[in-house]
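Preliminary data (for renewal application), 2-acetamido-2-deoxy-beta-D-glucopyranose complex.
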Amino acid sequence: MAQDIYLLFLILFIALNLQSVLSWRMQNSTNDINSDDQCPPQPHPLGMCNSRVAAYGYPCEEYNVTTDDGYILSLKRIPHGLSNATGNSTENTRQPVLLFHGLMVDGFCWVLSTPKQSLGFILADGGFDVWIANCRGTRSSRRHTTLTPEDPAFWDWTWDQLADYDLPAVLQFIYNQTGGQKIHYIGHSLGTLIMLAALSDNKVTDVVRSAALLCPIAYLNRMKSKLILLAARIFLAETIHMLGYHEFNPVGLVAQELLGQVCVNPEVDCYDLFSAVAGPDCCLNTSTTCIFLQHGPQSTSIKNMIHMSQLVRKSSIRKYDYGNEKENMKHYNQTRPPAYDLSSIPRHVPLFFTHGGQDFLGDVPDTRHLLRTIIREHDSDDIEVMYMPDYAHGDFVMGYNAPQLIYKPMVEFFKRH
Ligand SMILES: *[C@@H]1O[C@H](CO)[C@@H](O)[C@H](O)[C@H]1NC(C)=O
Ligand SMILES: *[C@@H]1O[C@H](CO)[C@@H](O)[C@H](O)[C@H]1NC(C)=O
Ligand SMILES: *[C@@H]1O[C@H](CO)[C@@H](O)[C@H](O)[C@H]1NC(C)=O
Ligand SMILES: *[C@@H]1O[C@H](CO)[C@@H](O)[C@H](O)[C@H]1NC(C)=O
Ligand SMILES: *[C@@H]1O[C@H](CO)[C@@H](O)[C@H](O)[C@H]1NC(C)=O
Ligand SMILES: *[C@@H]1O[C@H](CO)[C@@H](O)[C@H](O)[C@H]1NC(C)=O
Ligand SMILES: *[C@@H]1O[C@H](CO)[C@@H](O)[C@H](O)[C@H]1NC(C)=O
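Predicted structure:
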């Protein structure tokens, strides 16, 4: 019995700690990963604006956005690129675009590499006013008007609240700051789910000009990652929550220790575990991956992980299930949590989808199901789907050929809408 519990923890931490696993592997391997790129020795001590964006000479502004439920989010802005500086971001005719990161990373993921490689810079140089969100719980957004991250209540949220509060607050803020311009949106992974949820609840349709969804995540029922399936089926996140944990901090000491024990075993290839969860990325450069690993992974709430595993176990997309009728009644006035009706997404919002054949999380059957639900309602001019057979989850944000294959057609889509 004790061994079973140990095993449960092990699987959870492995399944959800792949970045740390990979990082462990990199630090400890000499020949299996290109050794021409050296990982810098330390994580970036400074914020995104100081350490990355300014390093390439780009302007970078920081804002604090307070949500209706009191979280103070850090929002970054690259008002223009190098080639076309006006020097005055208040007098701005560029179209704003908001980048929203995925689960367990933060806004850093959009500026990981060089200006020619990373979407944040490419958009700024392409004539856009670039805004980069950091959701609650990530390194620069661990603030609240009354709570601290040590309070369990600080972690009492799931992606329902990201869709209800974080996303609308950030969009409304940008809308105000840019004098009422509608915003193009780009989300990756979890950043797509919250947009789909907010659009289906009609929360943000007035301020969104179009949305590009990279690795759309909504239905997770047929996802291919065996480790995550197992973790969901045995109610691992729920177990951890019952033990009194609220923050899911993937680089916590316990996790590191467990991983160390597993990966020391020569029969376990920790590098393969990364692929086992997210799918085998085709096109990552070591240098980019290094920066990614050293900056993350970022915290999220255990409750959010529970909500994600509810998606894996069920075929419909619903708000967080409190697990019994009485509690659901208390929160929702009905015994089952309300469902998100994705077919009610307004058809006048132009949507650009791109998904990968090797992605275990945004897997092909689930994504097809999502697309069928949405496309039926849309005009064909306003929807575009790009299928990348070789791409897995990380390639869409970090792939060295993503600028050519993904970002270029995406920008063209924005320019048409
Ligand atoms: C790398 O391997 C060494 C032993 O070879 C070990 O002491 C160290 O903890 C490992 N690094 C990490 C990050 O686990
Ligand atoms: C945002 O909040 C931080 C911490 O409270 C503060 O240091 C910073 O000056 C604020 N930034 C702006 C633009 O208000
Ligand atoms: C500068 O911006 C204008 C309008 O946004 C655009 O037409 C022009 O091509 C840009 N020039 C360069 C060098 O990027
Ligand atoms: C920027 O533009 C605004 C509005 O036109 C103006 O009030 C402000 O003085 C300008 N700032 C700079 C630094 O030119
Ligand atoms: C945006 O402006 C409106 C009207 O001035 C104001 O009511 C609202 O609070 C502002 N929202 C944000 C997020 O700044
Ligand atoms: C990334 O890798 C590709 C293929 O190996 C190479 O052509 C490219 O120059 C690399 N880019 C960077 C920024 O290292
Ligand atoms: C539940 O329904 C009752 C009666 O219709 C209403 O008064 C109450 O505000 C509702 N509560 C919630 C949480 O929606």
